[in-house]
Structures are given as C-alpha cells and as structure tokens.
Specification:
This protein is mainly beta and 161 residues long. It has a single domain, classed as OB fold (Dihydrolipoamide Acetyltransferase, E2P) (Beta Barrel). The protein contains one helix and ten strands; from the N terminus they run ββββββββαββ. It has one helix at 111-117; strands spanning 15-26, 31-36, 39-44, 53-59, 63-66, 77-88, 93-99, 104-110, 124-129, 133-134. The strands form two sheets. The chain has a five-stranded antiparallel β-sheet, with no helix packed on it. The chain has a five-stranded antiparallel β-sheet with strand order 5-9-6-7-8. The protein starts with 14 loop residues before the first strand and ends in a 27-residue tail after the last strand.
C-alpha cells in the first residue's frame, strides 16, 4: 500500500536580474534584441528606444537545460554555459546554477531530471530561456552593458591598399 502523498512542495521563486541594452527592434517579427554582458536575448517587442538600458528578469522556472546544442526547438533564447552549483531544495525541486561567463543563471528542475541527465558541477550544457520579463524600472544607460565595437576592416581604411 502506498503512503499518502505529502503536501505538494511549493515551487521556489528563484530568479536572476540582468542589466541589458536595447540593440534593435524587428518590427516584422515583433521582437526586440537585448544585449547583456554574456550575449543577446530576444524578447517580444518593447517600446524602449534603441540604446536604452533595461533590467531583464529571468525566472528559474522558465529555464530548461539541454546537454547538446538545441536546434529543433521553439525556444529562441539558447545560451551555452557551465553548471557551477546544484542545490537540492524541497522535493522534487533542484536549483541548477549556470555560469554564462560573468552572469549566473538558475534553472529549476526536478531531482529526476538531474539524475536522468547526470548533471554535475563542471558540466558544459545549454540553458534554454522560455520567457524574459522586462522591468519598468529605469536603468541609466551608463549602467547598461555596451556591445564591443566591431574591429575596423584594415583593407577598407582610407589611404591603405
């Protein structure tokens, strides 16, 4: 006979807040591209002007993990990273923390997923971000990360052959 199930565990509200800069708006797809310290994110079209700073919130419940580069998926935001921490929470939840470089991002998964995928710190994997939230708080433009300028093509410089 099975024991009566315990009260369902509350899903933790883990999140990461990132400073980002609006790079471009694509009216044909109604999407905005945002630059953050470790890459770019796509979000539904926002009204903030190009170059402005925004705060992006990514909830751990909206982050999935893939062991190989995800190609045939509907999730637009897919970033490579390395697992730096695995914390067991109230069953069945586990917080998996990724380093994307300077950025730490959390995924909330089940213990079953951790075991099935053999997730361990040091493992390189992909984070897939299903949704991002844009804060209505203003971020001063000087606080938003700036994309690195493209190097000048030396062959097209004036006065050079």
């Amino acid at each position: 006979m099975l024991e009566s199930p315990r009260k369902r565990a509350a899903r933790p509200a883990l999140k990461a807040a990132l400073s980002a800069r609006v790079l471009r708006h694509d009216l044909s797809t109604a999407m905005t591209t945002l630059f953050f310290e470790d890459g770019e994110l796509r979000a539904p079209l926002i009204t903030d002007p190009i170059g402005s700073g925004v705060i992006v919130t990514i909830y751990a419940r909206d982050v999935s993990i893939a062991l190989s580069r995800p190609m045939d998926v509907s999730i637009t935001n897919r970033l490579p990273g390395e697992i730096v921490d695995i914390s067991h929470l109230d069953p069945p939840y586990v917080r998996v923390t990724f380093s994307l470089g300077a950025t730490r991002l959390h995924a909330l998964v089940t213990r079953e997923s951790v075991e099935r995928l053999a997730l361990v710190p040091g493992l390189r994997a992909w984070v897939m971000i299903k949704a991002v939230a844009i804060s209505r708080r203003d971020l001063k433009p000087d606080r938003a990360p700036q994309p690195r300028p493209w190097p000048l093509d030396q062959n097209s410089s004036p006065g050079k052959p």
